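DOMAIN: structural biology
WANTED: fold as tokens
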Amino acid sequence: MPGHPALTRILRQHIEDERLKPGDLLFQGETGGVLADSVTRRAWRGARKAVLPPHVLESPTGRRVYDNRHTRLTKWLDDGIPPAQVAEWTGNSVPVLPATYARCVEGRLPDLKRPLEAAEDLPEPPGAD
């Protein structure tokens, strides 16, 4: 899935530094297994607190790590990336996208309607005088 170039560089450096191979965990727990959910939640809360202004911190924005996925998919759809491409990148089916992200264009409806409203009327049929 596409990612921000700066984050991609950081992750690639981590993979190189840790000498990770395909199939290895990107981030491991203390015993080499999957990170405990409590560790992830604690790190996530700390990161949010460190970077978000208070009004955003108190909002539902990014409250859970998984919310980032919803935010990213919504942004891609809102930016006009074709649903088939978003589905391919994220492992969803195209029908799941509008069912889950149906309101992704909220706030953009005036922009989306502009080309429709700018279209000329149909010509009068012959003999309509």
